[in-house]
Amino acid sequence: MFIDEGIGLRENLPERLQRDFAKLRKYYDEGDWFHFDIFFEGVEATVKGYYLAGKISRDDLNSIFRKYGIL
Prior knowledge:
The protein is mainly α. Helix content is about 65%, strand content about 0%.
């Protein structure tokens, strides 16, 4: 579990994703790996859903997954 600070995400991602990423950041900064991991499972599903619905691009999907260590 990590967040790659070198990978930026576009600023106008859907608001829900921005809130989810802020919550992940909170868990990460606190070193709360249990909650980070559990919450990230839901975030991963949400990201995939947004991609399939056409609300984020393939580049967004790849950037998010690289930033959070999925790819």
